[in-house]
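4.2 Preliminary Data

To establish feasibility before requesting continued support, the project team ran the inverse folding procedure on a target of 260 residues. The structure was first converted into the token representation described in Section 3, and no sequence information of any kind was made available to the design step. The complete token record follows.
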């Protein structure tokens, strides 16, 4: 028993080291922009760059839009599958796994071929429609993670009994969905939202080939021309992502305590 605990602790330390040591090395390197001393000069340069503010804001807005579209697409679908069409679940799960095996480069070239300016639906003809196309592309990329998070949340509740109880009380389908199902799987939706945000904020391929001013292409551009600023950007992106995760967990815990 004791040897098993030691083995578990060794595995935990190795895993933590694999994650923490590169992070510490990246942070330490980002402080060495001035010869012979540590400073936050690289962070000052990054934060004062207007392109950083613009691209990060753009990616944040697109991430929020992606989360909203993804939730409105996945939750009703997963709910209906569990309630009425459980036999179709394996086929839907297979479809949601396709973005994991189809590279993003294939997806974006398909978009460019189907929705270019000379096609029947020229979504790349202006920035607004291209932003919509990019959002749908991100919804596709995040689909495996959002679907599994929501499906796991739905499996933890008795969907059929909640639906029947709401129907007995006279609730219509939109009321059942938004006032019964959504609150009961809030944590699962937030988990999917966090994963979606993490994917969108650093995505490069779709944004670059659709020529959108996102954070991923900006990160690549800075990395190709600077030495220390990319490390600062990596640390900033890491902190922002974990801050979002912390806020999501805090919000979910507060809501759980409030409803208990």
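Position-by-position output of the design step:
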């Amino acid at each position: 028993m004791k040897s098993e605990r030691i083995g578990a602790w060794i595995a935990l330390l190795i895993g933590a080291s694999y994650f923490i040591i590169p992070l510490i090395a990246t942070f330490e390197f980002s402080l060495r922009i001035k010869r012979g001393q540590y400073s936050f000069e690289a962070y000052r340069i990054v934060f004062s760059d207007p392109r950083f503010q613009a691209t990060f804001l753009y990616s944040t807005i697109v991430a929020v839009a992606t989360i909203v579209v993804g939730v409105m697409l996945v939750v009703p679908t997963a709910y209906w599958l569990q309630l009425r069409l459980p036999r179709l679940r394996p086929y839907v799960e297979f479809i949601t796994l396709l973005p994991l095996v189809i590279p993003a480069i294939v997806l974006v070239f398909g978009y460019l071929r189907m929705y270019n300016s000379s096609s029947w639906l020229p979504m790349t003809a202006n920035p607004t429609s291209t932003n919509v196309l990019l959002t749908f592309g991100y919804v596709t990329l995040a689909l495996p993670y959002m679907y599994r998070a929501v499906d796991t949340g739905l499996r933890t509740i008795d969907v059929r009994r909640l639906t029947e109880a709401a129907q007995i009380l006279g609730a219509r389908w939109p009321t059942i969905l938004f006032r019964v199902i959504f609150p009961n799987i809030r944590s699962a939706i937030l988990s999917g939202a966090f994963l979606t945000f993490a994917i969108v904020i650093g995505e490069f391929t779709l944004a670059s080939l659709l020529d959108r001013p996102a954070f991923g292409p900006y990160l690549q551009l800075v990395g190709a021309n600077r030495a220390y600023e990319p490390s600062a950007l990596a640390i900033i992106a890491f902190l922002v992502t974990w801050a979002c995760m912390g806020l999501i967990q805090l919000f979910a815990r507060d809501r759980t305590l409030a409803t208990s």
